[in-house]
Amino acid sequence: MMDNSSFNVKLEDISGMRLSKKAILTSKWALSMEVIEELIKDLSQYKEVGTKDFVTMRDEINNALKGYNDAKINLKNWIALQDKITGISIERKLLDATAEINKNYTIKSKVWQTETVETSYHNTLCSRCNTLCHERCGLQYTINTNANIFTGCACMDDVKCNVCSCDYTVHFHDKKKPVRVEKEITSVLAGMKEKYEVSTKNYEIKSKEESKCILESEDCNNKVKSAQQKITESVKRLLVVNPDYNILNEIEYDIKKNQHELDNEKDMKIRTEKNSIIKALTEIAHSISSLFK
């Protein structure tokens, strides 16, 4: 590095200097001249570049770095979406398992029930307890209750029924009779039913959410590829204008910066994310480096 202190001394100050100080100043001046001479030699090795080429260089450098930053942004988005997809997948499995456990929320059982069936003949029945007291009654058919005729029915012991113990006055004739039939009934376990329906509904919601994230993830991946192509094309054009300019240095510096942040990061989730980004950026840098061979 050049020491510029000798350039700051005024001519009128030199005459009054002590010899020792003049000697130091002369030495610094000589060293500065040597550095300037070296700079001139280095600069003379570079070919001349026109103003238009400088504009092209600036534009292509900006394009390449913009592509690199776009790639970084979409890589971060892609990784975040992968984490989200993984989380949704776990949720879907849990919801599916809950639905499977609670899907049999109905229980079928058989019970005996009393039903009334039609008959081609009349019977004596009790209106109070719905009992068939005398099937195929031989008395004259009557539709009236509280009829004295029922005191003469075979089921009666004077005024009381031997079958149901009710008074004759509550008995009547009808061409029907009660029968016992076995029926299958379905009972619903409300708690299980609710869990099944909620799990099934949320499973569908999560499935749609997962599909959306997968599409967004694919879009991010395509954007990364597009950005990488943009970088490659800009670097190619940049090398045509100035083969000595190596934009890879800036990219490698950024990767080292990310690596330094990774080394000092304690959070495992953030470390995993940064590590994935660094790997992807390193691949981009590797593809660019092949252009300089």
UniProtKB/TrEMBL annotation:
Top-level taxon: Eukaryota
This protein's name: Uncharacterized protein
